[in-house]
């Protein structure tokens, strides 16, 4: 009987946990799991284990949480100890999914079959930290998963295989994330089975043509600039659900906007002006067209459909959402 492929896994959030669960369920040996150190989370800011760590501990898998893997970084001793641990852990391949730490070439080269990354876009489009958010925000018609042989560049390695999905008109980052996480889990298991059977995975060099960079989401981006077109703002609302949550500021109060669509109205009003208020939605004039807000949240409150939200909020025609300072200066 041939020995199962031994897989060191590196990942942190739910996206990665789905892949680890699939690899484990498929019967591959996982001698070591790398994940980021516990982080403060929740109202009490208690140290919280990552989804990957929680899964690994439930299955009695060995877990390591180095602060860094770069010998020339801020934590050289931790990095050296982690690299020594990797070298001392017999394994055939390393699988990486949304790990969040930089992996130098020295680390990528330890496993005989190198390191395979599960990336949430159709490379070379949306290299970088936030490919799911940016695909929705940009209005892409489709996205997918790319398995990539990692190199020291930022998502520049040779492509092993991909799987595509359509971006639906009502997709949020949350809903698309869940579909892509499952797609990535299925794709990596297929690839590992092929690697186990064939001893190699063919790959194709990644073109630079058509490359875009999915910059990490910054909280200040969540403020809606009402001077933009309504369709762009509707995409932004979907892209920023569940994090960081788009918002508009009305009379000094930040109101989260969780669902919105383009309105048929064509108001001749200043961007940010409320032009209609009803149980069907709050309609706000934009630089082009108007946006109908259908799910909102007050500070300290819950996400509510507009019908319920308006029972505890006084929105009036003529009120105007502020233009964000960062946008006003741009």
Automatic annotation (TrEMBL):
It catalyses: L-methionyl-tRNA(fMet) + (6R)-10-formyltetrahydrofolate = N-formyl-L-methionyl-tRNA(fMet) + (6S)-5,6,7,8-tetrahydrofolate + H(+). The keyword Protein biosynthesis applies. Residues 216-313 form the Formyl transferase C-terminal domain. (6S)-5,6,7,8-tetrahydrofolate binds at residues 121-124. Its EC number is 2.1.2.9. Belongs to the Fmt family. This is Methionyl-tRNA formyltransferase. It comes from Caballeronia choica. The gene is fmt.
